[in-house]
Amino acid sequence: MTTDVIVVGAGPTGLMLACELALAGVATRIVERRDRAQPDSRALTLHPRSIELLDLRGIAPRFLALGRPVPGWHFAGLNTRLDFSALDSRHPYTLFLAQARTEALLEERARELGVDILRGHAVAGVRQDAAGVEVDVRGPGGGATMTAAYVVGCDGARSTVRTAAGIEFPGTDETVTGILGDFATVDADDPALRRAQAHGVLVAPLEDGVTRLVLIDPARMRVPSREPVTLEEFRASLTGLCGSDCGIGGPRWMSRFGNATRLAARYRSGRVLLAGDAAHVHFPAGGQGLNTGLQDAVNLGWKLAAAVQGWAPPGLLDTYDAERRPVGRAVTENTEIQTLLAELPLVEPYAGPARALRRLLDELLTMRDVNRHLAGRVSALHTAYPAPAGPDTGPDTDALTGRRMPDIALTADGSPATRVYELLHDGRFVLLDLMPSDAEPAIVPAAWAERVHAVVVTPQGDHPELSGVTEVLIRPDGHIAWAGRSTDPQQRRSGRIRALAAWAGADRPRTSA
């Protein structure tokens, strides 16, 4: 069985990547060891940048219809919340939506795009050479070998793909564990429930009257994550923390999780790539894991499609590691900080100083600039890729290069009003010509016409970051590839051509190289 790309793992990252590849016309197969979708949801949230990425593809309304917006979020469970509502986005909130729902919606979209999803098949081996990859799978009907141009491991922390590729996964083993449980009954009127929240217990209402509780019990926080959680343990932990078991009953799912933190030594080894938990694992502080994986997928999708289809400029696929691995490192570092802030108040002799540190950080987060800075990092709205990470665009590299393009409102002569993200629904590059209508329009030469949508527009509202900018080339993942500031027609054209050649390649015959 041959396809262009094999994605291993049908979690949110693998499904999102498959959607991106299929949208670009790449034949994609997902191989998933489970024979059915996971009914339980470890993750519960979509952060602002993830919602923006769904909006980039025109599917955000599906998720918004089922989720619940929450304007504030937390850092290390501090009392002062991160204010996402102050961020520059059409989606300045966390969307409370169970992971199972997110996966179901992404699978629906993947099937609409023609992705082949093969469930109940485990990967037993991966081999690669200059021509492609071979993936050995085992399923109910026996074993088989699949071939493709590339394989992407989205198969979690114990990734078979990563191991087969010989990619190191350095980091630290778990030292702290917490427990979570989804309960059909919780006594909402029990005053102990409020005391529990004051002791760091997360209380989150789910669907169908189910309530999730998440906690770290000082008496049990060294128990290995592989040990199952019992209802008796959960009740004892709650009673020890707040004097009552809060009337919990009817457990739907209980699990233990740890703070093992690891980052892949590289995200690419030849024709093998990693994304999501296969590339980075950490304590689930701030709900960043699923979101980071979705953002990996959208960064990788168009670049991998370019490599498969033969038009990728030199070095384009390597920018995936150059851009996303530093993000993975930043996420693992901030979750380690959050783990310490949650753990140390429970451990003598650090408890007193740690509680004082938390009070200080609470005070700092009341400062608008501090709060906005940290909210921008956790939400990923402030993620910007350094200009040197991309192909060389010559002397026209601008301060905007690598930054996320805001979803500003636009008008064009003779066309209905639109906004930037609506122009990116088909996954192509977008070239915004911001010059007055009487100037020479930005023309995209035929070599790039199929991959770049050029439009002459006028931004609506005040956007000081675009002051003096005459053209913007936006990547399919919504980040700025190039910004031009010249008003001279010849200089505009030469800068545009350099940017297009550097990022959008040129016409080449289809190849699997």
Topology of helices and strands:
Elements: E1 5-8, H1 12-23, E2 28-32, E3 45-46, H2 48-56, H3 60-64, E4 68-70, E5 72-73, E6 82-83, E7 94-96, H4 99-112, E8 116-119, E9 122-129, E10 132-139, E11 142-148, E12 150-153, H5 160-165, E13 171-172, E14 177-185, H6 191-198, E15 202-205, E16 211-215, H7 231-242, E17 249-258, E18 261-263, E19 268-269, E20 272-274, E21 280-281, H8 289-309, H9 319-343, H10 351-365, H11 368-379, E22 409-412, E23 415-419, E24 429-433, E25 452-456, E26 458-459, E27 471-474, E28 480-484, H12 489-504
Parallel strand pairs: 1-2, 1-12, 2-8, 12-20, 24-25
Antiparallel strand pairs: 3-7, 4-7, 5-6, 9-10, 10-11, 13-18, 14-16, 14-17, 15-16, 18-21, 19-20, 22-23, 22-26, 24-27, 27-28
Helix pairs in contact: 1-4, 1-8, 8-9
